[in-house]
Amino acid sequence: MPGRVGVMRHTVEVSDSLPPRPVYGQPSPWLAQPQMNPFGTPPAPEPVMPWAKAILVTVVVFLVAGVVGGWAWQQFSPLAQYTVDEQGGALGEEQMTRVFGPDGTFTAIGFVAAFLLGGALFWWLRNYGPWSVAVVVLGACLGSGVSWGVGMLLGHDPLTERLEAAKPGDLVAAPLELHTWTPAAAWLVGAALAAAVIAATTWRAEPVATGSEPVASEGNPPVH
After folding, report:
1. Cβ(97)–Cβ(74) under 8 Å?
2. Which of the listed ranges 32-36, 47-51, 181-185 does the model predict with the highest average pLDDT?
3. 3-state DSSP call for residue 171?
4. In the 8-state DSSP scheme, what is residue 168?
5. Where does residue 190 rank: exposed (0-12), middle (13-18), buried (19+ CB within 10 A)?
6. Residue 34: CB atoms within 10 Å
7. pTM of this structure
8. Transmembrane residues, as ranges (predicted)?
9. How far apart are CA 114 and CA 4, in angstroms?
10. Cβ pair 209, 41 in contact under 8 A
């Protein structure tokens, strides 16, 4: 009998030193809890606005920019001056250098406006991926056409009628016009360049995934 009692006491002491069994449905204090934001997990993607809103905002922005650009083109373009005589109108050597002034002004206004606005819109629509480039470039083409149309509406006066109505010795300004369609592409080039610069900088700034994740250290306390 004394031997049996000693064995039973030994068994009870061993069982008391063991940790309690975990209850199913409750987290065990001995198990490491999952982290809310584990290392290496990419951040949640930003919400993407509907296509209709993105296209509408782009169209409105470049429409307003085209109107303002056309007005600025008509106001600040240097125009050549024809000197009227008995035979009609003629351009002097100094005035000949100003013939292509409207082309240069249209190019400068369009490139700057499209670069700034195109860059801002591309950054705003960057979640759309390559489609954002197409939206911005098409919007820039719209702005170029609107700018040309507004400028021609405000400043293109027929030259022949004004020369016939002028007197000898008068100066008659040349009509506001583009001599080639190359300046019209300045809007497209500016928007495309802005999108390319932003895409290159943001691509270099993004972290490169290595494909391996560090092993989480076990948080189990030592069992004595």
Report:
1. no
2. 181-185
3. strand
4. T
5. buried
6. 8
7. 0.68
8. 54-73, 106-125, 132-154, 184-203
9. 95
10. no
